[in-house]
Write a structure and sequence with these properties.
The chain is of the alpha+beta class. The protein contains six helices and 14 strands. The protein has one domain: Alpha-Beta Complex (tt1808, chain A), CATH 3.90.1570. A hairpin with a 6-residue loop joins strand 10 and strand 11. The longest helix is centred in the first third of the chain and has 18 residues.
Amino acid sequence: MNLKYKIDSVSIHDYLEGELQSEIKHEYIDGQVYAMAGASTNHNRIVANILSALHAKLRKTPCEPFASDMKVQVAEDFYYPDVLVVCNHQGNDYGVTDAPILIVEVLSKATRKIDQTLKRQAYQSLESLQEYIVTEQDFVDVEICRRKNHWQSEHYFMGDELHLETIDCRIPVEMIYERVENEDVLNYLQQQASPMQNEN
């Protein structure tokens, strides 16, 4: 999530109708509409990598992953998670769900505070949600919080493998950060290459 600027208060109906026509996505929080700024290349790569793994796992199942065009409704607020998984989704005109079982957010300096406070609290209030995953893009750190563990944090790094228990999907952290350009990824790739170079 990257909030750019605020628009005057509007009704939920007007917000949803407006999103159908708008070229810019907006989130709706406490009656206010916030435009979302564009995402970085690293952000988009992480989202694409996670989405690819989820698509492969969930083929021919009642659950499906969505990218950031699907809105999540929490009470009277609406958010655009970076990635979410919904089971037995019944399509609607506004692209809204209130029953995700898994949500992923990719953090940035601009979004870290709201993603880790307001949105985290909102998502965790959803009875359907079982796992909340927060991924850094400027360095390697994947955090998983699970309902069954009272939302306690577990952190994963290069060389580790995530197990998304809700859908029984295993994803190596290295796969999540494939093609991502940051110092942690570069150092890891250099370390992986060193033994091969020594053998030659």
